[in-house]
Write a structure and sequence with these properties.
The chain has 156 residues and is an all-alpha fold. The chain has helices at 2-8, 13-23, 27-40, 45-63, 66-76, 81-86, 90-102, 107-118, 122-125, 135-155. The chain starts with a helix and ends with a helix.
Length: 156
Amino acid sequence: KTVKKYFNSGGTPEEVVNVLAESFQGIGNLARQLVLWLEFCGESTPVIERMVEDHVKDLLEEHFDPKKADTIFSEEGDLPGWLGEMISYPTWRNLFYSLADKHPDCIMLNFTIKLISDAGFTDEISSVSTASQQIDVFSRILKDKCSQHTYIRDQV
């Protein structure tokens, strides 16, 4: 889309190639190479995965821009596939909880908290302050807590 606009404004293919080549950092390739080196040095796969996840999580927390995040819905027009996949992992759910507490007005994060609640992780989100601001999420948490209390009372 951007390249098409560039061509429509008079840009040439050679200029596009040069600009893209000059700005290419290859971070994915460098990260993969680092993983291979760590494996070669004898580090276990779970330890490497944890290191990479922790680093990516730190980067996301440091550079998160709620305004850019909110554009996901206007640009994508639908729920991005990667969001549903991310909430299936505890590491990324915890990241969303942390970000939602820091950016309570972010539409994307509030929607993600609702998705997490819909997926059945109400025990986890009961401590997230923004979760209580969404009536359907709050109601689900309250219902689950009352059900747990009733079950415990019936067992005694």
